[in-house]
Description:
Strand order of the largest sheet: 4-5-6-1-7-8
Radius of gyration: 17 Å
Number of helices: 8
CATH architecture of the domain at 16-78 and 143-214: 3-Layer(aba) Sandwich
Low-confidence stretches: none
Structural class: alpha/beta
Number of strands: 8
Shape: globular
Order of helices and strands: EHEEHEHHHHEHEEEH
CATH topology of the domain at 16-78 and 143-214: Rossmann fold
Distance between the termini: 35 Å
Helix content: 25-40%
Strand content: 15-25%
CATH superfamily of the domain at 16-78 and 143-214: P-loop containing nucleotide triphosphate hydrolases
Largest sheet: 6 strands, mixed
Amino acid sequence: xxxxxxxxxxxxxxxxxxxxxxxxxxxxxxxxxxxxxxxxxxxxxxxxxxxxxxxxxxxxxxxxxxxxxxxxxxxxxxxxxxxxxxxxxxxxxxxxxxxxxxxxxxxxxxxxxxxxxxxxxxxxxxxxxxxxxxxxxxxxxxxxxxxxxxxxxxxxxxxxxxxxxxxxxxxxxxxxxxxxxxxxxxxxxxxxxxxxxxxxxxxxxxxxxxxxxxxx
Length: 216
């Protein structure tokens, strides 16, 4: 079964690109291909001029570990680990010393407002706090592409706003591109561009301000 049909999009660094559309339209498949988690049956994926199709096995894993951060909808934190231990995992994958990785994770947790929660385990954190740990984990290795799958879906309005404000700050890095898949109209105000999808195709690309005006 073909999920995507002739999708051709470009995501620019220094901004947040929102990917919107009904359930089942191919959004998650698209970002999984962009993040190197799925291999497309045809076409090219280029991340900062590097063609993912040229990478295989350990080379692809190493590229993802260096260049891409992924924020999952359900956080995917390991329950037996503390917030700092969860957040430092990408650095450990890169071979960093555990003590250095934990130190950097603690610094990043402090930067996202969780300095006092570094030793807490996921069960001791609210949903919004767990999502911020997940974002810290996605950022700790300083990726140039951050991909977020429904980061506010399980959050209340206040927590969702905190998460999107954090992503907004992250996106201001001129060397980093941020993609956010969302069904949540409350976050449209945080985007720079909006890509609309339907039935596996891109149906529209617009500046976020124009999109909001046309959907108000």
